[in-house]
Amino acid sequence: MHVFVTGASGWIGSATVDELLAAGHEVTGLARSETSADALASRGARVLRGDLDDPAALRRGAEAAEGVIHLANKHDWANPRESDRAERAAVETLVTALDGSDRPLLLASGLAGLAQGRPGEESDPSRAVGPDSPRGGAENLALDHVAHGVRSIAARFAPTVHGMGDHGFIALIVAAARRRGVSGYVGDGTNAWAAVHRSDAARLVRLGLEQAPAGTRLHAAAEQGVPTRDIAEAIGRALDLPVASIAPQDAVDHFGFIGRFFGLDMSASSARTRELLGWSPTGPTLIEDIAAGAYAKAGAPA
C-alpha cells in the first residue's frame, strides 16, 4: 500500500514510517523543513514538502495515496486554540480528499475525558464535538465521514508514548523535578496514566491501517494505568531526588502547563483493540524505561 503520513518525522511518526517500510509499504511523508525531508529520505520514504497550514499539499498527498495516516499536530500549548483550529482544518481537507474512495484514514486522537470513575474503553465516544472543542473535534469529524465512503479509524494514544529519547509529557515532568529539586505528583497520586512504548504504538498504527474496519476506535495503551505517584517515585529514584505530593492548586506553578494534566486520570483499556488486531505489546513498561535512563537528559543542563 502507498501510505501518506503527516507528522512523519515526529516521535511517533518516524517510528511508524520505519514500521510501514519494514512491512513492505511505500511511504510518502509530509515534511515542513529540509531537515525533516532529509530524515525521511534517508529512511527510504518519499517526501512531500508542506505542513498543516498547506491544504493543497495535504490534498495532493491524500489523493495520490492508497491510505493516509494523520499524526501531525502543532501542540502549541501556549495557544491551544490555534492547534485545535489547524487540526480541524487539516482533517477537513483529508476527509474531503478521500470522500467516496473507501480508502483508510487513520488519525491520532487522545484518551483524556472518555469516562468518569473507570478506564476509558474503545466504545466510549469522544466528547470533543465541533470546531471549538479539543483537537477541533477531529475524531468525530473523521468518523462522521464513514457515511461518505472514508474508512476512518481513530487511534487514541496514551498520554505517554515513551522510549529512549522521548521529549513528551514525561520528559516535562522529569524536567520539573530537576528544576524544583523534588519529584512531585498531584494530590494523593492515585490517578493513573495509560502508557505505551513507542515501538508498540507504531505497530498498532500499521495494523490499524491494514485491518481496522471503518468507524473503529483503537486504544494505543499497553498499560491500562500507571499511578502518577508510581511515576513520580520512579523519577525520584532515577534522579536521586525526594518525592512529594503537590497540592492541586499548585500543580501548574510546580510543573508548568503539564500540571493541568498530571492530576487527571487518563487510564484506558485496550482489550478490544488487542482482540481486533492481534496486537500484543512487547516493549518496556514506563517504569522500566525511566529506570533504564530514557529520561536521563530531560531538563539537564546542555
Describe the protein's architecture and organization.
The structure is a single chain. The chain folds into 2 domains: 2-159 and 197-221, NAD(P)-binding Rossmann-like Domain (Rossmann fold, 3-Layer(aba) Sandwich), CATH 3.40.50.720; 160-195 and 224-269 and 283-291, UDP-galactose 4-epimerase, domain 1 (Alpha-Beta Complex). It has a 7-stranded parallel β-sheet, with helices on both faces. The protein has helices at residues 11-22, 34-43, 55-64, 80-98, 138-144, 169-180, 198-211, 228-239, 251-255, 259-262, 271-277, 286-291; strands at residues 2-6, 26-31, 46-49, 67-70, 104-110, 151-157, 160-162, 183-186, 192-197, 216-220, 223-227, 243-246. Strand 4, helix 4 and strand 5 form a beta-alpha-beta unit. It is α/β, with parallel strands linked by helices and 302 residues long.
How is this fold's topology laid out?
Layout: E1 2-6, H1 11-22, E2 26-31, H2 34-43, E3 46-49, H3 55-64, E4 67-70, H4 80-98, E5 104-110, H5 138-144, E6 151-157, E7 160-162, H6 169-180, E8 183-186, E9 192-197, H7 198-211, E10 216-220, E11 223-227, H8 228-239, E12 243-246, H9 251-255, H10 259-262, H11 271-277, H12 286-291
Parallel strand pairs: 1-2, 1-4, 2-3, 4-5, 5-6, 6-10, 7-9, 8-12
Antiparallel strand pairs: 9-11
Helix pairs in contact: 1-7, 3-4, 6-8
CATH architecture of the largest domain: 3-Layer(aba) Sandwich
Total count of helical runs of at least 4 residues: 12
Shape: globular
Distance between the termini: 42 Å
Number of β-strand runs: 12
Protein name: Oxidoreductase
Region (Disordered): 115-137
Organism: Tersicoccus solisilvae
Domain NAD-dependent epimerase/dehydratase: 3-212
